[in-house]
C-alpha cells in the first residue's frame, strides 16, 4: 500500500511547512534539497532519512513516482540536511526490498504495517 495522494497533498501544503524548520536537526529526519527536473526551481522536502554505511536510505511511503524522487534520479543527486549537517548525496538508486533491511527495526515494523517496500538509497560524497 502506498499512502494516498490526498495525504501527500495535505503534507505538502500543511505538514511540510510546519515541520520544515525542525527537520534539519531532529534525529531520523532530514531536509532534501533538490532541483525540479523541468522548472530548475529549488525545492526543500522534509523526509525521514536513515543513515546507512555509505549514505542514507529513505522509505518511499508515497511510492517511487513521487516528484521529489524523479527529481533526484534525474539530477543524479541532491543535498540532505540532517542533524545540523549538510551532505551532498549522489548515485540515487531505487530499491525494492520486502525485508526493509536498510531501516532501523522499529521503523521496519511500522513500514511493514503500511506495506512499504520501495526505498531510495543515496551515497554520501
UniProtKB/TrEMBL annotation:
GO terms for molecular function: oxidoreductase activity. It comes from the Bacteria. InterPro entries: F420H2_quin_Rdtase, Split_barrel_FMN-bd. It comes from Amycolatopsis saalfeldensis. This is Deazaflavin-dependent oxidoreductase, nitroreductase family.
Amino acid at each position: 500500500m502506498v499512502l494516498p495522494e490526498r495525504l501527500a497533498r495535505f503534507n505538502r501544503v500543511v505538514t511540510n511547512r510546519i515541520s520544515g524548520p525542525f527537520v534539519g536537526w531532529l534525529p531520523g529526519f532530514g531536509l532534501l534539497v533538490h532541483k525540479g527536473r523541468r522548472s530548475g526551481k529549488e525545492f526543500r522536502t522534509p523526509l525521514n532519512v536513515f543513515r546507512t554505511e555509505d549514505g542514507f536510505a529513505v522509505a518511499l511511503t508515497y511510492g517511487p513516482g513521487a516528484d521529489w524522487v524523479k527529481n533526484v534520479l534525474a539530477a543524479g543527486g541532491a543535498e540532505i540536511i540532517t542533524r545540523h549537517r549538510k551532505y551532498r548525496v549522489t548515485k540515487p538508486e531505487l530499491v525494492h526490498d520486502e525485508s526493509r533491511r536498510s531501516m532501523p527495526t522499529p521503523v521496519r515494523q511500522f513500514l511493514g504495517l503500511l506495506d512499504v517496500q520501495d526505498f531510495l538509497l543515496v551515497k554520501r560524497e
